[in-house]
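Bumping with the actual sequence this time:
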Amino acid sequence: MSLIEKKQLEGCRMEFKIKVDGEEFAKGLDKSYQVNAPRLNVPGFRKGKAPKNLVIKTYGIGVLFDEAIKETYPAAYEEVISAEGFEPVDYPEVEIEDIDESGYTFKATVTGKPPVKLGKYKGLTAVKESPAVEESEIDNEIENLRDRNSRMVDIEVRPVEDGDIVIIDYCGKVGGEAFQGGTAEKQQLEIGSGQFIPGFEEQIKGHTPNPEEPFDITVTFPEGYPAEELSGKEAVFTITLHAIKKNEKPIVDDEFIKDISDEFETVEAFRAEIRKGLEQQKLSAATRSFEDALLGQVTEAMEVEIPAVMVERQIDNQVESFKNQLSKNGLTLEMYLQLAQMKMEDFRKNFAASAEKNVKTTLALEEIVKLENIAISDEEFDAELVKLAEQYGMEKDKIREMVDKAALCADIAMNKAVDVVTSSAKEKKPAAKRAKGKAEDGEESSEEDASAEESEKPKKAKKAQSKTEEEKSQD
């Protein structure tokens, strides 16, 4: 393998002209023969059994070129860009120029990382919130706990009201014909939840449970309904109302706490633990927000022209992550787009801003790593392996086998770059919020503010005047 020529193209694109010949290409031809021989007929031989020289004599050596190129060009390309210190951000566009039995020449055109010029990244200032926890927030957590431990109970026979949970059978028809998805039995539905199409829940209100007396309701599917054959159509649903139920929430006392927890025995102790957890959450959120604000200042001040392909590849990653989340809920991206009535092009646009932000942040942190000469020791690498092993419940050596050391070290280095920015930064307290009473008073508070401003001005003027008089006396 040899680099014949490299040429800087527009932007961050580079063209490499590379020659593959000699032993490397001979190995590629041997591999190509092994792959292709089973499908090639040579008179007098079973498929795959004809010697290589007879295959070449029968079909010509060109029959082996495609597979030989696939086998050899990736390693040649990787060797060249590594030797040149070039960092690609996309796959190369490969064009074969000359090829014969002795080897071939190809051009690889690829986009690289752009040059980055940082502005100030030390000694910055950003707001950092204090993690104060209100009693109402603890109450909300307790209420959520009550919801999770509630149980469904029957209530007296009476007409259905808003907020009731009803148990129904239904059978829907359009034009007298049943349709797919329009029939269910013992369906649980909370009235007023908006779970069903408009008009459905409202027409159940006022009815009393009686399985022997079904009733009909008429609704219209909204325009643009995901099932196109139902969009805008009128439907009649026959409803059988079996029962009305409600969620009964437990009383929060010491006995309830003992039932749900092995660690706490009193409401007071449990609330203290909730407060501790909320404070930790808020502290983590405040730290992330502080870091984001600082890194935002760093990226705002840096000079860089980001290749569009870098943002596109980041969008690809985010879309793939979204697909994985959907699959956990039994959905595909195609199903989601259909339900959301969205085209893939528009869906991808939703990720554009965050993708660009991520790319800018990564470039900035990588540049800080270079400027600060940040290197990762074996001890730091092993410490990260221990963390990952604990996180995933696996042996450290198993994690070591699975991870890409270079990629993991790069992540550790960028985290240290974040520390460079945050450790030198100054924390600014949030602006004091105006008291609720003053905010509601409107004109009164405005007058007070104006009065306060006016009272400050004479003091400043007086101070300035005193200073002037002092200077005169010195003269």
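The tokens above came from a reply further down the thread. The longest helix spans residues 267-301.
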